[in-house]
Design goal:
binds zinc ion
Length: 315
């Protein structure tokens, strides 16, 4: 009987996904419940409990060592969740203490991007590297720094927020209240807006066909689809976005003396040319001595990173 089983909970704005995970990082069972993010804090905690208890029932009577949770928002050293976007009543919630009370098991709560970084470090593309920058490029731009084999949290758990590195102080407004953040150029919504604005000058782009001629329907998934089909305009949009992202990555890699970036999230999976654009840009923005060693690699765990990273918190 495998005695090293844990529960990994990936709390998102739409769903809470929970897995029963072995110590080798194998997901033995997983489920998905609505997270009720627009409900009260107690409703959200109830959904986490339901989802975790369901996973526990699949342990075949084996002992569960603990429960790890990846949560949106900033998470402090005591597992208090602060300001998670898309949740109505979940600011300042002592989630770790609440869940320890509910389960009578060790519980660890960590920011979701940090949890995904831990997952790549323990079970994914980051395994060979004790130090790397992890980036999730999707709706927003999130990140986590693995330093000497551990997550670098900073004094209050807020480290790794690479999406809000400013790449132009006169740039467009970002939803964080600042200007010119890299997220305000390459985050899903902003990227679509930029494509929309430019598409008027490229009436023969396949992208226009993919969105049924309606510019309002542009989403990165269509830009990626058009790019994969060889559309030059769509490729240029993504290459430019990769180049801009590389500027921010270069800043972190210089500051932390890192050589490796691992990129996850939907947009990064658009094709090798995007990874190449990021890498080229990083190389141009780090100091010369580190340029030959720069590596920009795709994440390996995809949608399972959330569950595996949460599990990794208690393994
Ligand atoms: Zn910002």
């Amino acid at each position: 009987m495998n005695s090293d089983l844990v529960i990994g909970v990936d709390l998102g704005g739409t769903n809470v996904k929970t897995g029963l995970v072995s110590n080798e990082g194998k997901i033995l069972y997983q489920n998905k419940f609505p997270s009720n993010a627009s409900g009260s804090r107690w409703e959200v905690i109830k959904q986490i409990e339901l989802s975790a208890r369901d996973a526990m029932e699949h342990a075949g009577g084996a002992e569960i060592r603990g429960v790890g949770v990846g949560s949106p928002g900033m998470v402090d050293d005591h597992g208090v969740v602060k300001g998670p976007p898309n949740f109505t009543d979940f600011d300042g919630i002592p989630l770790q203490a609440e869940l320890e009370r509910v389960f009578s098991l060790p519980v660890r709560v960590e920011n979701d991007a940090n949890a995904a970084a831990i997952a790549e470090s323990r079970f994914g593309a980051g395994k060979p590297f004790p130090d790397f920058l992890f980036v999730i490029w999707g709706t927003g731009v999130g990140g986590g720094i693995i330093f000497h084999g551990r997550i670098f949290r900073g004094p209050t758990g807020g480290a790794g927020e690479i999406g809000h590195i400013c790449i132009d102080y006169n740039g467009p407004p970002c939803n964080c209240g600042s200007r010119g953040c890299v997220e305000a150029y390459v985050g899903q919504r902003y990227l679509s807006q930029r494509a929309m604005a430019k598409l008027a000058n490229h009436p023969d782009s396949k992208l226009l066909e993919l969105v049924g001629g309606n510019l309002e329907n542009i989403e990165p998934v269509y830009i990626a689809q058009a790019a994969r089909a060889g559309d030059a305009f769509a490729r240029d949009i993504l290459i430019e976005a990769g180049t801009l992202l590389g500027v921010a990555l270069g800043a972190v890699m210089n500051t932390m003396d890192l050589r490796v970036s691992i990129i996850g999230g939907g947009i990064s999976a658009s094709g090798e040319f995007v990874m190449d654009a990021i890498k080229k840009s990083v190389q141009e923005h780090v100091l010369k001595p580190s340029r030959p060693d720069i590596r920009v690699l795709p994440a390996k765990l995809g949608n399972n990173a959330g569950i595996l990273g949460a599990a990794g918190l208690v393994l």
